[in-house]
Every structure is written in structure tokens, then in C-alpha cells.
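quick one before i forget lol
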Amino acid sequence: MRILVCVNRDLPSNLALNLLLPSLAPHDVLVGLSERVGRAAPDEPAERRELRTAEQSIPNDYWFPLVERAGLADDGRRHLTFAEIARHRAMRMLALPQPNAGDGLAVVREFGPDLVLTLRYGVILKNPVISVPRLGVLNLHSGVLPDYRGVLATFRALLAGEREIGCTLHYIEDGSIDTGAIVDTRRVPVDRNRSLLWHVMALYGPGTEMVAAALETLARGERPASRVQSRDEGRYYTYPTAAEWQAFREQGWRVADPSDLGAALARYVGAERSTDA
């Protein structure tokens, strides 16, 4: 299959892409990158800046360049940066900030994907690009649908006191958000001793297992079973307000811990992997 994989240039997306490398290896893959999700606002809460620093600024500006300059071997065990994936696995990778029109849509049409797969991608896909792949568009959403549509679903689940968080593999069928037919859902237990970032990253192991299973089904010429979700159920969430972040803090939650980042970094430098990230 020809697969267009659309991801954001951040640490959880890179983790997910690494976990999917064995499943993507038999296919012709083009990776399209967005640079961020949402826009920074002058009154952006400090907690959202903290999360973006942990997910994007530190890995992209510091870790990944250092790892790449170290020239570490691709031994099949350590995780690879975006640039290393392109170099070592011969996987084409390009910036794709606007796939719905103009040059971006032209790139998608020229590649002619059979399937589009989105993971944390920073752009809402619209009908012009959705209509291109014959097998449709699959999205891995880091929340349980239909209960937690929208952004930062993991934050919302923790704030609501859920005992489990989850992720959902579903189809994108139109320009609406997180409303398409559901293929599968996985859940992991909440750990009160861990941060928001840890919980976000903990979802991508079971999440990518769902994606891998769907790719196997599609490669056999079959369509993964799915169920239509009711648009009358659940709720769409936008970015948390400063007051909601404050409530999150007051419940004892942390946004990110240095230990989260340290465990993640160990995966890229070939140190012994931790099961905690």
C-alpha cells in the first residue's frame, strides 16, 4: 500500500512513528509533518507552554539534533529521530502544513496514497484531501470516543477523575472532528503518581497496536470492522482555560516531570529502555 502518515513534529508523534516502523516497513510511506497543534495566544496559560516545551521545544531544538550529530547506529532497538527515520529507513518525510489546498494538496494527489493515517496531526483534514485515498483516512485519537472529542482529551479525562484513559482508532469521513466510525478503542489505567505527559505517551503503545492490526487487515484486502458513533453523544473539548489548568493543579496533577523526559531520551541514545514511558 501507499500510505501517507500525517504527524506533528513532537515527541509523542515520534514515539508513535517508531512503534509503527515494523508495520510500515512493507509499504510505500510518505510522512507529512505539521509543526504545531493550535496557535499560541498572548494569554496562553503557563501549563500549556510547559507541555509544549516538553513535547516539542526540548526534543526538536536540543535532543534530536544532538542524537543526530552523535551518529549512533541504527541497531533496530533504539528509537530514531525524524531525520534518522528518513535516512536509515528510506522513508520520505516533508513539511505538510496545509494538505487541503494548493501545493499541499498537489503533493498528496501526486503521491496518490491508498490510505492516509493521522497521529496528532496539527491540521483538520477537509473533503478535498479526504477524498484522495481509496481506503480512507484513519486517525488515532488520544481519547475515548465519543466521550472525549477534541484536543487534550487525556487532560480532560484526568481532570474528570477517570480511572482509565484511552485512545480510539477511527475513520475521518468529513471535515468534522473525531466523529467518524470507530474501529477500536484501548484503555490504560490512570497512575496518580505520574504526569500528564506520561499519560499521553502511555497511550501510544496500545494505540499503535490498533493501527498495526488495521494495516494488516487492509493489506489482506479487507476493511476493518467499525461502528458508527452517535454525534449526539459525548462532548467536543477545546483548549483548557487558565481556570481549568488551575483546577488540574489543585487536584495534584503535574504537567511534565524531568523523569518523563529522561526515560524518553534513553530510548534514543540506546540506554536500557524504561517501561515507564
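fyi The longest strand covers residues 164-171.
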